Fold this sequence. Notes:
Elements: H1 3-23, H2 26-42, E1 45-47, E2 62-64, H3 65-71, H4 73-78, E3 82-84, E4 87-90, E5 95-98, H5 103-130, H6 134-138, H7 141-148, H8 154-188, H9 198-220, H10 223-248, H11 257-269, H12 273-283, H13 294-301, H14 307-331
Parallel strand pairs: 2-3
Antiparallel strand pairs: 1-4, 4-5
Amino acid sequence: MNLPDIIRCVRWMIRDTFRQSIATKLFYVMVALIAVCTLLCASVRVTGDVAPTTYDWEVPALIPKDEAEKLGMDRVKNDGVRVISGEVSFGFGATKVPLGRTREDAVHFIQTWLAGWLADTAGVLLALLWTAGFLPTFLEPQSVTVLLAKPAPRWSILLGKYLGVVGFVGFQATLFIGCTWLALGCATGVWSAAYWLAVPLLVLNFAVFYSVSVFLSVWTRSTVASAFGTLMFWMLCWLVDYSHLRMLGQPSGSLAPLSQFLMDTGYWILPKPLDLSGIFFDAMNAETISSKPQELKVAESGGLHHPEWSVASSLAFAAGVLGLSAYEFKMTDY
């Protein structure tokens, strides 16, 4: 089979994955959730805030109006603290929150919450759960034998299915970021281009861990094993990543050499969800919104954390697992 035929096979499998998502109604479920988030963003209103003029030598100090009233308005003004009297409303005014930031910071906070906490953590885990059934269903003998009868390498079929699922999640991530960005921009007049960096980072995070779902699907042909096995593996990787970063912040020699070797080996072999979240944190410039985990900050300050190597090793792990999956698929007798 020549290269054009392999490319055609992969392309067809990608298209079949989108067809499968529509047939199982997963496509519509995810679009409905995106529509709800978009409506919530469209309902946001930011009123009463004025961005203060500051100089390079000033340390900006802001406080919400209700907090200033508790401390005493005259005392706050005498201390040179600027009072922000605006508010952010959600649900077209149904819920109102005092504004302790400027308009841009308020929108930045909402975008960081949507992309970082909702999509990058809960969204990726839910996507791993919801897409776990794609491959086991596809690998049922009555379904896959039709494809295996055609002159296409099994690895190209599996690769096409993997790329199809990653492409489907990438499409949904782009739709989520695009719709919420547009809704927030129209509602508040704030347009942040950095918000779009969430799309490739979300897809990268999902693609790395979905390779494990592929391997479990080929190995067990069970949706339950694929779904919960992948979630358990994600938790294991998070714990290894966190423990390794915590180890970097401890004095040299505080751990036994064997323990340190095993921790380093596990860290560099396995994917690194906490590191990927740190990259997202930096890309979104979220330092003004919340603080990074202390362990990650200590590792960065000591020059012991290298995000580019974290990404490279995570991708290498995904490629290795996909290779094992292709070999297992090739050796499976249907």
